[in-house]
Amino acid sequence: MRPIDIDFGGKRRTRARIFGIFLLAATIAGVGAQTWAYFGLRAEAEASQADRRRLDRLASAPSIKSTPEDQERLRAELQLSNRIIDKLDMPWDALFATVEATANKQAILLGVEPDAERREVRLTGEAKDAAAMLGYLRELRRASALKNAYLTDHQVNIQDPQRPVRFAIDASWVAPALKEPAAAPPGKSNP
Q1: Whole domain around residue 38: which residue ranges?
Q2: CB-based contact 110:142 (threshold 8 Å)
Q3: Are both 37 and 107 inside the same structural domain?
Q4: Which of 69, 97, 123, 166 has the fewest other C-beta atoms within 10 Å?
Q5: Which residues, at least 6 apart from 58, have a Cβ–Cβ distance to it below 8 Å?
Q6: 3-state secondary structure of 65
Q7: Which residues touch 29 (CB under 8 Å, ≥6 apart)?
Q8: How many CB atoms lie within 10 A of CB 127?
Q9: Could you tell me if residue 26 is inside a domain?
């Protein structure tokens, strides 16, 4: 008699084994993906906690208080900066254009001493005679960049045979008037 080889699972067993191996591989891949995601989220959580601890330290750190001396020093620096800005913002061109326009052969200008803070200017010069000095003063009074021009000092040089007159004139220094924007035609507005 021959032995009988009975295969109760045969082809089914091979299919089940392949399905089991596939299921095991899918499970291992899923667990790997979940592990990868877990470690990524854990790193983000640790970074967020570190940021929060840093911000908490900054928030609880004592704030820097300025002393009255620091505030006074800062105020003085601010005032100095404002004075410098005011000096730079003065209408220098208008002043020098006025001084140049009023020059003549009868009276020459020897010095210009502007005081930007007080908006005043002192002009010193020398004229041929008193009439030339007064004519120069009249020209300065007509100038648009200066107002309240007045003679503060004058001396006749008696050592010079021509007897020239040295003088000083003080005046207020004004900014030129700004031009008004042109009116828009009816129905249109200026931007």
Answers
A1: 14-52
A2: no
A3: no
A4: 69
A5: none
A6: coil
A7: none
A8: 21
A9: yes
DSSP annotation of 181 = P
CB 128, CB 153: distance < 8 Å: no
Question: Are 96 and 169 contained in the same domain?
Answer: yes
Pairing of strands 120-127, 165-173: antiparallel
Q: Count of domains in the chain?
A: 2
**Segment (H or E) for 165:** strand 165-173
Q: Bin 51: left if φ > 0, else alpha if -120 < ψ < 50, else beta.
A: alpha
Token pair 């003065």: residue: 90
* Residue 155 within a domain: yes
Count of CA atoms in the C-beta half-sphere (13 A) of 70:
4
Taking the complete model, does pTM exceed 0.85, yes or no? Answer: no
**H or E segment and range at residue 123:** strand 120-127
